[in-house]
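thread: overnight batch results

M.L. [08:02]
morning all. the overnight job finished for the chain we discussed friday. pasting input first so we're all looking at the same thing
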Amino acid sequence: MKVNLLNLFVSFSLIVLCNQLIIAQINDTQLQVRQKVFYKNPQLIKISSEKFQLNKLKPIQFKSFTYHDFKLNKSALIKLKNGRSVSAEKFLDEVNEIEKKLNEFGYSLRNQDEEIILGRFKYSYDHLQRQSSLLNESANYSAKENLRVTPCGLLTEKEVQSALKSGTPKESWPIKKNKNWSVQFGDDNFGIGLESRLKYSAEEKNSSVMVNADTEVDIQIKIFNENIPVLKLIDRVFNSPAQNNLMLFLLNNETIKDNLNSTAKKNYFRELNWESGIELSLGPFDVEGNIRTKGKAGIQKYFNPSNRKLEEQLSPFIDLDFSGELNAGFEIAEAGIDGFVKIIDDTLKLSRNIQLKNFSSENYFDYETDATNNLSALKGKIYAYIKIDYLIGSKKFIFIFYDNQEGLSLTQKILKDHYTQPSKRDRELWLEISRINGITNYTARNEKLEIIPKSFIVEVEAAGQSFCDTIVDWNNDGIIGSPIKFKIPILSSLSISIKIAVIEKYKIGEFKFDANLDLVKGESRDIQICYNPVTRKISGDLQGEEEQELISTGDKNYFGERNHSVKFKLVPELKFNLAPTKAK
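M.L. [08:03]
and the structure it wrote out:
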């Protein structure tokens, strides 16, 4: 009997334990399979008639409609085309109320036109087109620049091996790559903003490759002055041991969190919905309703770590459309939002591979990276309408929110590198940039331009290093006069190429622009030079030598401003100015 009771107790305990495990597994699965992310804006968006360019005509004298105009009895019940039923009395009241509002704008239900455009949302499509042209021009330039051979030529593994034989490397020479990239398109009413920050370092330790990488991607959309953080990706790779932490935020919610510590290939996907109440004046009509963005977002990830090699691929994506509906507050009027706008369809593809190779007891890196962004944005037409059914006719009044069938279609090469580099070095070099002249708010003839310079992004690539500094233009004059310094590790027996690029950020009205400054004559814009540590000579786009101050000036401008230029020099060690002697 005791044995039976014991067996019964054990069986019952196992059943309870199994149920708990099943429940835990279901809960865990539910967390992982949370397919929809929804956010309702707690704030009502209000848009005044001042935001519209109204097609207002000279007011006309109000003349009321009567039952006779519609051949109606006062007691009749009317079935409207929109499916609603309304009494003849209410019908006539609404017809006359609408007619009076229309008369104040110079229109009437008695007009012959069945479809009338009453207004358009104020939006600078000229500035939008300029943004699109500059972005495409920058993309085409980047594609050509990635194919350009450096003044030092292409460094081969044999040349690296030869340099390792002739030199005696002593200190670690890590790979350090930093890249900031951004796209601004549109303004605060219809706009998008993309930013990515890529930081990557690799170093040899105990004949193993140690990698630390931080990748952040921020995507925001702007609708009627609402700044919506639709996607934020944080991806970190580090060796302790090798692992990959990944977090994806959608609409400010932590949606995906994962930790990879071995070879893995993942595909994360979520539906994404944002909605907000809206209240606006469309000429003579006050309406309310909802606007929304709907689509999908996610990320694809491949991670393959080993002792002397690391491969990874990262691809966040987002696809959102814009729509909505309205209510005019009249039984005889139907209000809505029609049309279609592709707010954003973006995919960033990033791949990085690094391998630590060996030659004659010395190690060197073989590094390759490729980053491309494919973007389609703000493409289509969307409008609000009010359709009035008044038995003897119908009228449709249209208010255009956005109308641009071209939008932006852009494929941009952000990064493309493939090179070999020793893992140790024996000296260092300093690059000092002392002055930058960019896009100013005056022409060469001293004519005022409607441009506000905001900041400069200085990018330097040299000897397996990439530096990225953002310098704020506090004077908003397009000129930077404060020195910027970069330390470059080198091997005494190996020539290095140095590339200097400057991107200026500026505003025209409410639109933001980025421009690659033209710093050299000819088709290229970036400065590329070769430094020979044996002769201490400089060749390439400029000729010179160590400690000689060089000025590189381009031959293109954007608005008639003076040509862009950079003043810089290379020094073997950083020199400091002596402090002034104390006054007696």
